[in-house]
Write a structure and sequence with these properties.
The chain is an alpha+beta fold. Among the domains are: 3-74, Arc Repressor Mutant, subunit A, CATH 1.10.10.10; 478-560, no CATH class. Helices cover 41% and strands 16% of the residues. The chain is built from 19 helices and 19 strands. It has an eight-stranded mixed sheet, sandwiched between helices. Strands 14, 15, 16 and 19 form a four-stranded antiparallel sheet that branches. Strands 11-13-12 form a three-stranded antiparallel sheet. The longest helix is centred in the C-terminal third of the chain and has 26 residues, at 362-387. Mean pLDDT is 83; it is low at 73-80, 474-512, 518-548 and 556-561. Pyridoxal-5'-phosphate (PLP) binds at residues 113, 177-179, 203, 248, 253, 281, 283, 311, 313, 323.
């Protein structure tokens, strides 16, 4: 092992053990060269390696910091990487009860499946709708029946061409949102009792569809960092007569993860080998934070086995219910099913959206939307760092608007969901994304809403609830006396019995507190505000800084335990 690799391994172990929590600034290059007796280039190369592993991140002119999700990057995926037997599914009542709560506009929508309607160009859309309806040919009621309005399908086909994967307009079928497209595709290729492969965790509507159609599901684990486990999928295909797969290949709901282009290609090839159709749910594909849109698996399909389903619900117009599928060799079957179920998608809406796609500036709107979502992600991460207790892991998604948080083991996400609702906050609990009600300690948060004091305060409340559920208050500082200016804080001991008190000065910031408390817990002395403090005993935290103080002490507890 080279010197820089050894140094990177040492630091990685420190990060993975929780010794350096998310957001911790790494020591300076100069400091490390002295500490380890190595050259500057060794330190730099070690840092680059840590960055490549997703453990640290550089901030301009500030140095390197431990990255969000760093612990998870090293931890085993919170999913069983084993193949479980196919099972019937019964999730609907749980999903319905959770979704019911989203409908109330007074609730803070951290559990919503949609971005804020404020981010959509609704007046411009209304203009297109008004214009198109005025010109609507009375015969369009008949002409625009499935596969749908030709003008619209041409605009959609142009978007595929723009991606470099041209589709014939005959293979594009307009539907009522992606949901209808996905359901029709599943119906087109399965019979009751068949086995389908779905993800775990997975978008709950896939579970509901499987349940409704009397199918059995084999769950394929999704790693929050690398996506679907193709080895487990290959095993499932060997072992079971899988009739179809329903997967999200980009910005998966709920994990936000994507398959690399190589993995998408490998997936398509694997399924082609077994002649198994792929129902590809790509509703978030346009919401990428990198410059280029990720290619869907459809791009690698040479046999017409991939049914690419998407919609404008997440990008333009949720209420318009406009989606489509490029259904490859299954086009006729899906089209007939569409006629047999909902007959047609609203004719004026098809015409209005066609006009918007041609003249409304969709790509410009998408650029604005992506940059708003990316900015909101940053603020959400800051709020997590500020308000939520330590021990929460997540991967930073490269698109979409969901964060999949893994909470400490002892937290029950359903209970957190219920308590949050009592405080007017909606979050999506992990168990609704699983046929086995797994992910008990995971939640999905939506960062698709412009930041506001209401959301900030909801994050603070979530932090308080998490502390309550993890029993942290008995371990963390308690405000014993509050005199309007400060509060005495008692820190419970970590290794030995009896209580221990540490001291600080009023007005001390969270990071200074970390140093003071760390020094108290470890019994060493340090300088603070120009004064030598040696093993201080009582802490007086400003009331306004109560939360940083509490977080600081929690961090120190983790260091010293
Ligand atoms: C992953 C995923 N697929 C499909 C849908 C449904 O999309 P639409 O509203 O276009 O029917 C949703 C909506 O929440 C979703 O999250």
């Amino acid at each position: 092992m080279k010197r820089y690799e050894a140094l990177a391994e040492t630091m990685a172990a420190e990060i993975r053990s929780g010794g350096m929590p998310v957001g911790t600034r790494l020591p300076s290059v100069r400091h490390l060269t002295t500490q380890y007796g190595v050259g500057q280039s060794t330190v730099f190369r070690a840092y680059y390696l840590l960055e490549e592993w997703g453990l640290i991140r550089a901030r301009e002119r500030s140095g390197y910091f431990v990255a969000p999700g760093a612990k998870l990057a090293a931890a085993p995926a919170p999913t069983p990487a084993k193949l479980a037997d196919p099972a019937e599914i019964d999730v609907s009542s749980l999903v319905f009860s959770v979704l019911e709560a989203v409908k109330h506009p007074g609730i803070v929508p951290l559990g919503s499946a949609f971005p804020s309607p404020q981010l959509f160009p609704l007046p411009r859309l209304a203009k297109s709708l008004a214009y198109a309806t005025r010109l609507l040919n009375p015969w369009s009621t008949v002409v625009d029946m499935p596969p749908g309005n030709e003008h619209l399908r041409r605009q959609i086909a142009l978007r595929y061409t723009g991606m470099g994967i041209p589709q014939r307009i005959e293979e594009i079928l307009v539907t009522n949102g992606a949901m209808e497209a996905l359901n029709l595709c599943l119906m087109a290729v399965t019979q009751p009792g068949d086995i389908v492969a779905i993800e775990s965790p997975c978008f709950y509507a896939a579970l509901q569809a499987v349940e409704r159609l009397g199918l059995r599901a084999v769950e394929i684990p999704v790693d929050p960092q690398t996506g679907l486990d193709l080895a487990v999928l290959a095993e499932a295909l060997q072992k079971h007569p899988v009739r179809a797969c329903w997967f999200m290949t980009s910005f998966q709901n709920p994990t936000g993860t994507s398959l690399s282009a190589e993995k998408k290609k490998a997936l398509v090839e694997l399924l082609a080998e077994h002649q198994v159709p792929l129902i590809e749910d790509d509703v978030y594909g346009e919401l990428h934070f990198q410059p280029d849109r990720p290619l869907p698996a459809k791009a690698f399909d040479t046999q017409g086995l991939v049914m690419h389903c998407t919609s404008l619900s997440k990008t333009l117009a949720p209420g318009y219910r406009l989606g489509w599928v490029a259904a490859g060799r299954f086009t006729d079957r899906v089209r007939r099913l569409k006629l047999m179920t909902t007959i047609s998608t609203s004719i004026p809406i098809q015409a209005g959206i066609a006009d918007y796609l041609q003249h409304g500036g969709f790509d410009k709107h998408l650029r604005k939307l992506r940059s708003a979502l990316r900015a909101q992600l940053v603020v959400m991460e800051q709020a997590i760092e500020k308000w939520l207790p330590p021990g929460i892991d997540y991967f930073r998604p490269e698109g979409g608007y969901f964060l999949w948080l893994r909470l400490p083991e002892q937290i029950d996400a359903m209970q957190l969901h219920r308590l949050a609702l009592e405080h007017g906050i909606n979050i999506t609990p992990g168990p609704i994304f699983s046929a086995r009600h797994a992910y008990q300690n995971c939640v999905r948060l939506n960062f698709g809403h412009p930041w506001s004091p209401r959301i900030e305060s909801a994050m603070q409340t979530l932090g308080d609830l998490l502390n309550r559920l993890s029993g942290t208050p008995s371990q963390t500082p308690q405000a014993a006396t509050e005199n309007g200016k400060g509060a005495d804080v008692t820190v419970m001991p970590l290794r030995s019995g009896g209580s221990r008190q540490v001291a600080s000065t009023r007005g001390t910031s969270g990071s200074a507190l970390v140093r003071i408390i760390a020094c108290a817990l470890t019994g060493t002395g340090l300088e603070c505000d120009g004064r030598k403090i040696s093993a201080p005993r009582t802490i007086r935290a400003p009331v306004s800084a109560h939360t940083p103080a509490r977080r600081a002490i929690q961090r120190c507890q983790r260091w010293s335990s």
